[in-house]
Amino acid sequence: ILVAFGLGYWTGTIKKLVDEKFDTVTDAIEASKQTTKENFDDFVYRFIADSVFQLERIKFPLKSSIQTDLDEVDTKAIEKNDWKIVRLFGNEEYRSQIYDNFKRELRDTNERLFCWEGVENGIYVEYKFQRLGGLWYLTEYNDFSD
């Protein structure tokens, strides 16, 4: 009986130590998930410069809306084979603007809205990005230019 009691105590102690280690590992994994959010600025510079990376970071089929000549909006899905690599470089005819969410409010969110807004010429193009699993992806492309 004494041996059985001793083995039971020792087994219980070992189990408690193992459970505590698993809790520590689980907490560390959860903390790393929360802190491994990709920085949008670093992401967008690589997205612009690296065409292979760009294709990896687009959620295909990509939702897209294009304003037609008849002031109607044509909505479709762009497949990977139909995507044309974008460089997101501006010029004097339009400027870039990045918002931290789709409502154009300034908050810390998992959304970014990259826009080309024309200077008195009707250009308005949107690239909607979302942080999914800590990484940024292009999830929607819209061209509402006149």
What is the compact description of this entry?
With 146 residues, this protein is α+β, with helices and mostly antiparallel strands. It is built from three helices and six strands.
Secondary structure topology:
Layout: H1 2-35, H2 40-49, H3 51-56, E1 58-67, E2 73-78, E3 94-99, E4 111-118, E5 124-132, E6 135-143
Parallel strand pairs: 1-6
Antiparallel strand pairs: 1-2, 3-4, 4-5, 5-6
Biggest sheet, spatial arrangement of strands: 2-1-6-5-4-3
| Alpha-beta content class | alpha+beta
The share of residues in helices is: 25-40%
What profile does the largest beta sheet have? 6 strands, mixed
Please indicate the percent range of residues in DSSP E strands (runs of 2 or more): 25-35%
Radius of gyration from the alpha-carbon trace, in angstroms? 25 Å
Can you offer a commentary on this structure?
- The protein is 34% helix and 33% strand.
- It is built from 3 helices and 6 strands, in the order αααββββββ.
- A hairpin with a 2-residue loop joins β5 and β6 (135-143).
- The longest helix has 34 residues, at 2-35.
- The chain is elongated.
- The N and C termini lie far apart (88 Å).
- The relative contact order is 0.15.
What keywords describe this structure?
146 residues, alpha+beta, six-stranded mixed beta sheet, 3 helices, 34% helix, elongated
